[in-house]
Amino acid sequence: MLVALLPGDGIGPEVIVQAKRVLDAVCGDALRYEEAPVGGAAHKAEGHPLPPATLDLARRADAILFGAVGDPDCDGLERHLRPEQAILGLRKELTLFANLRPATLFPELADASALRPEVAKAIDMVIVRELNGDVYFGEKGMRTSASGRRQGYDVMSYDEDEVARIAHVGFQTARARRGKLCSVDKANVLETSQLWRDVVIEVAADYPDIELSHMYVDNAAMQLVRNPGQFDVIVTGNLFGDILSDQASMCAGSIGMLPSASLDADQKGLYEPIHGSAPDIAGQGKANPLATILSAAMMLRYSLGKAAEADRIEAAVAKALAAGHRTADLGGSVTTEQMGDAVLAAL
Ligand code: NAD
Ligand code: IPM
Ligand code: MN
């Protein structure tokens, strides 16, 4: 099986190295790897954030392990050349519409949570984020208004098929867990969200065993810190899911802990930590590699049929945390590589 390694920018390469060490320890020769540049690194080397050869590798591979993209030096580039376009392009080109972002509190990290430990310890949810539509992919631009002012615009829209296919993923994810699905929208204000809610209710007819609720996104942001234990599965749009998952990560200890899977209809997937390239700590050995190591475990489970190996990695991460290893984001002083060492030792 071929794994595409796309390290990207900033801390991306640093965390990918550790995930690769863990994969080597668990899978040995069962996996082959090919690496390609992506993001700002690809723009510097080849003039485009998602070069054709990188996209081709992503298409050929059985699964993709992605670090992060984003480089402040690229902020002045035209938007279509910026590093972030690489991850958006991969998600769109490969129809990776279902982004699963599990947020679970490792009990050892109760003190690292931004919430009180007794509130944090109940966190065990999956955010199912739609990844191919919404304001991300609508018409956008800069124009001059009738009164001569500069105006920026980004059109938010979903069509019913896009909502229905992610709703099915939400219901099925809930069915495999505690049977509760909360659909998050802003239907009190947005037409996009009204359609979202209508379609989710229609799809619910196929899942009478699932307890469906609806919540406005502002309330959801509040409930996530008030009582995160109430959530089993959240299904939501691209933008709301982006924001709520960063928030959920801090409830679960750190943004450096949350993995993700971005899947198409056939479980082909791209796996990446939810965090970005963290330019503020890049090159300093401070990055927490566990989100990427846990993403590699998701890759084994969802795309490569290696559930036992995935279980081993997750257990080793828990053991490394139980042994007291903490990177700076978790209040410790262990380096990126030492955290990798700790997971390997636990394995
Ligand atoms: P970020 O997630 O990169 O960093 C936010 C904060 O969290 C920073 O203080 C950073 O040091 C910290 N952090 C992030 N990951 C960490 C880790 N593994 N260990 C310890 N600390 C960690 O978000 P940002 O600063 O808003 O964005 C930086 C760049 O990354 C931007 O160019 C942005 O567009 C990009 N980005 C890319 C992705 C992606 O590739 N999928 C995701 C988010 C942001
Ligand atoms: C993420 C990131 C991306 C997003 C950016 C870099 C395009 O924030 O993967 O969460 O907004 O989806
Ligand atoms: Mn994000």
From TrEMBL:
In chain numbering, the residues marked as site (Important for catalysis) are: Y136, K186
Binding site residues for NAD(+): G276, S277, A278, P279, D280, I281, A282, G283, Q284, G285, K286, A287, N288
Taxonomic lineage is:
Bacteria, Pseudomonadati, Pseudomonadota, Alphaproteobacteria, Sphingomonadales
Q: Where is the signal peptide?
A: none
**This protein is called what?**
3-isopropylmalate dehydrogenase
Xref: HAMAP family: LeuB_type1
Which InterPro entries did the record assign?
Answer: IsoCit/isopropylmalate_DH_CS, IsoPropMal-DH-like_dom, Isopropylmalate_DH
* Gene source species: Sphingomonas chungangi
> Which gene produces this protein?
leuB
Keyword tags? Amino-acid biosynthesis, Branched-chain amino acid biosynthesis, Cytoplasm, Leucine biosynthesis, Magnesium, Manganese, Metal-binding, NAD, Oxidoreductase
Q: Specify whether Transferase is a keyword of the entry.
A: no
